[in-house]
Amino acid sequence: MSLGRDGFIRELQREFPNAFAAISKYESGNLHCEVGTLRRLTEEAIDAGNAWLAEQHFRFIERLLRDADPDLENALEISYLEDLALGEHTPQRHQIVKERMPATLRRRLIDMHDWWK
């Protein structure tokens, strides 16, 4: 059974209640915005040096991608991975992605932008 928006929200609320709570009333109901909130929080974790939390986010995204329906897969690829790939490039972001992101996600990120090699 594939996972869609409802499954994403359910899993996000269960595993990352703070991320779920960070979704504004304007973002709620828009899957790309909801996924983008998690991406923003991942970037904030990386920038704060919280590699463990960033790794948890990465593993969450990796797991969801395995079972995602086409809409969720698109949102995870565009509003999480592509936005992360094309976002700000700092040595700290590069180091944490290189050391903590699962290989399957990192390959996708590198396909989007060579800087992440």
How would you sum up this structure, described in words?
- There is one protein chain.
- The protein is mostly helical and 117 residues long.
- The protein has one domain.
- Helices cover 74% and strands 0% of the residues.
- The protein contains 7 helices and no strands.
- The protein has helices at 5-15, 17-21, 31-47, 51-67, 70-86, 91-100, 103-112.
- Helix 3 (31-47) runs antiparallel to helix 4.
- The protein is globular.
- The protein starts with a helix and ends in a 5-residue tail after the last helix.
List the keywords.
117 residues; mainly alpha
Topology overview:
Blueprint: H1 5-15, H2 17-21, H3 31-47, H4 51-67, H5 70-86, H6 91-100, H7 103-112
DSSP helix fraction: over 70%
Structural class, please?
Answer: mainly alpha
The overall strand count is: 0
Number of helices: 7
Radius of gyration: 13 Å
The average pLDDT score comes to 96
Low-confidence stretches: none
How far the N terminus sits from the C terminus, by CA atoms, comes to 34 Å
Overall 3D shape: globular
Strand content: under 5%
